[in-house]
Design a protein that fits this description.
Length: 247
């Protein structure tokens, strides 16, 4: 599960969706702990951003833009936390439909999107653009949407440079997943056993190590490619899972 999280967190294919499908494939029963596990280990992957982009968080201008982008997700996430965890996380059919439709949308967007001579400096992203990107990110509370896909497509729609919005998406993930992890631990940590904390630690560490390689892969990938291959992958994964695993 840690490997799945590390690979998928920063790719536009939904890490939460993949964790839910991986649980189904590995016959891991859905419980309050497994749902918390799928939230908390995502912060392990996010720590890789701090290792690779630590200096960016010392830039006051970048930090302010990140915090503005986090506001919509923070408010909506706190308000809908219980509903999302109770009814959405663990719902494989929802994940498969969202993966499929999201893949179609990703392909259509890329064929219609015309790259502009856009701003390539994160510090030049406006507060208005930051807030809009944050609204896009909040949609990713629906498992299968993909936080990175939502923010990156939102940024591209605004005319931002692909590398710029990808890196901004990386940075925005830090307060987002720190907030989600802290909220879940505050509500549920008292019910975890010592063995369960060990399970969390293993998933956390593995996802951190694998995510570093995933970030480097994505940065190299976007130099020559768009996200159409990821859209195709999402569609194929949904169809194969429907035909093979659920049947």
């Amino acid at each position: 599960m840690g490997i799945v999280e590390g690979i998928t967190e920063f790719l536009p294919i939904s890490s939460t969706g993949h964790l839910i499908l991986a649980s189904k494939f590995l016959h891991i029963g859905q419980s309050n702990f497994t749902k918390s596990f799928e939230i908390i280990i995502q912060f392990g992957a996010i720590l890789s951003v701090i290792v690779l982009y630590g200096k960016s968080f010392l830039n006051a201008e970048i930090l302010k833009k990140i915090l503005v982008a986090f506001i919509p997700t923070g408010i909506i996430g706190f308000a809908l936390y219980k509903a999302v965890k109770t009814y959405l996380i663990g719902n494989e059919n929802l994940v498969l439909w969202v993966l499929f439709l999201g893949g179609v949308a990703l392909i259509i967007f890329e064929f219609r999107h015309k790259p502009a001579s856009a701003e390539s400096d994160i510090t030049r992203i406006s507060y208005k653009q930051s807030f809009f990107i944050g609204i896009c990110q909040s949609v990713a509370m629906i498992p299968g949407v993909s936080r990175s896909a939502a923010t990156i497509i939102g940024g591209l729609f605004l005319g931002l440079n692909r590398k710029t919005i990808v890196e901004f998406s990386f940075l925005l993930a830090v307060p987002t997943m720190l907030g989600a992890t802290s909220l879940d631990l505050a509500k549920n940590a008292g019910a975890f056993s010592k063995d369960q904390f060990l399970v969390l630690a293993v998933g956390f560490i593995v996802s951190f190590a694998v995510a570093i390689a995933s970030i480097k892969f994505l940065l190299n990938f976007i130099k020559k490619h768009n996200f159409v291959p990821f859209g195709i992958y999402r569609i194929l994964l949904a169809v194969i899972f429907w035909l093979v695993v659920l049947n």
